[in-house]
Amino acid sequence: MLVGNIGSRYRFSYGALGDQVNLGSRLEGLNKMYGTEILLGENTVRLLEDSFLLRELDMVRVVGREQPLRIYELVGKAADSLPEERKLSLRHFAAGLEAYRRQLWQDAMAFFNQSLVTWPEDAPSRIMAERCRIYRETPPPADWDCVFEHTSKGK
Question: What pLDDT band is residue 28 in, cutting at 50, 70 and 90?
């Protein structure tokens, strides 16, 4: 990452450039798509996983990057106590994500829907259940790598 003046001698601004800055911008846009507030990439998660409650949401390929990335939602501080319904919802989501990656669309959809029963405002569960419905009707190619390709920046 580079930080400094950008532009020409007539017009410039101070800013940051680089892959991580670009990725941060893409994750910010994905928040809108997943109905989340804070999304993190794998590198950040490695630094924070003992301090915060995190939920793996998906494996994605974002605009401008070839390499897939696991994305995580920041749920709260590690010391926070979650309501039992929220804990159960997170467990259902994790089971749904596992079934999703095994292409068990009906099972995955059932887990995501059960997550919504216990925590109705969970937008990622709603989104993943809908994606399973679509994949059940129109499966991904046989060589699918479990990566969801986002084709817009999501701004």
Answer: confident
The answer to whether residue 11 is domain-embedded is no
Identify the domain containing residue 130 by its residue range.
19-149
Average pLDDT over residues 43-48: 88
Sign (positive or negative) of CA dihedral 29, 31, 34, 38: positive
Domain count, the chain: 1
Q: Quick check: is 78 in a domain? A: yes
User: CB neighbours of 150 closer than 8 A, spacing ≥ 6?
Assistant: 26, 30, 33, 60, 61, 62, 63
**pTM of the full predicted structure?**
0.83
